[in-house]
């Protein structure tokens, strides 16, 4: 029995690694009701310059656009890969997306950004990103298995592991270096951690399909995904230029974020055994190491030795020496 074949009984669990991911997400359960955002509202109105406020508005608009408009993929995981364990995993992941959706709708409301959010959705570069992120819904292959693989790769790489991370970086940067927006920052960290887990789930499924159906991973698919990666960067670079709004500070600029996104795309491709497509200026990545350390520290799950470890719900970071 393969991953695309229907399993009607719950036992045996043919993909026991699903339990690790489910447990990790259960351990990190949260809702937006944990936050009142009162200090954030005060920070937003009194502690930021006009330019900084505009960056925050644009950044949260860009996050909200994805969380509210794009995320419906995981709920249908069990329809495409009909195993009880994968269906359970899909439902758990879909539930976290509902939490994200509700959380960012509320955040936009309490910061009185709903009208601005709606206006920003009309911008060409915002609509362009929605268009590329929804490419996973387009049919390119007659073979249903290859079509689903293509959709899964696009969704995992670009929706889950790339599109939101420059925005997460901006909010985390303001909290870390400007000491503002602590509730917003914590909500973003929860979201960031779960998107990272979702990307790992997608990569695990893709690599499982590769092991069972290696013929699906032909040169044509490799070339198509490489092309989509290049198009993804073009769309994200436009968002970054608009979002960063000309700021150039230590650790935060359009140039830094563009290299950051290129690197994430390369790392995403590497997770599923594809070649990188970008040359990355590593010197521009050095100011972003803290972000990767935080993410690694918060999502320390040993997926290789089968030991789930709770991703942290505390606000802490780790140095490389502490982690290794």
Verbal overview:
It contains 15 helices and 2 strands. The chain has one domain: Ribonucleotide Reductase, subunit A (Orthogonal Bundle), CATH 1.10.620. Helix 3 (50-69) runs antiparallel to helix 5. The protein has a two-stranded antiparallel sheet with strand order 1-2. The protein has helices spanning 17-27, 38-46, 50-69, 77-80, 84-110, 114-120, 124-133, 144-160, 165-178, 182-212, 219-244, 254-271, 282-285, 289-298, 320-323, and strands spanning 248-249, 252-253.
Defining key terms:
65% helix; 1% strand; Ribonucleotide Reductase, subunit A; mainly alpha; disordered C terminus; two-stranded antiparallel ribbon; 324 residues
The averaged pLDDT comes out at 89
Overall radius of gyration? 19 Å
Would you identify the regions where 5 or more consecutive residues have pLDDT less than 50? 301-312, 314-324
CATH superfamily: Ribonucleotide Reductase, subunit A
Helical content band? 55-70%
Q: Which outline best applies?
A: globular
Largest sheet: 2 strands, antiparallel
Structural class: mainly alpha
Second-tier CATH architecture = Orthogonal Bundle
Nutshell version of this structure?
By secondary structure, this protein is mostly helical.
Give the arrangement of secondary structure elements.
Elements: H1 17-27, H2 38-46, H3 50-69, H4 77-80, H5 84-110, H6 114-120, H7 124-133, H8 144-160, H9 165-178, H10 182-212, H11 219-244, E1 248-249, E2 252-253, H12 254-271, H13 282-285, H14 289-298, H15 320-323
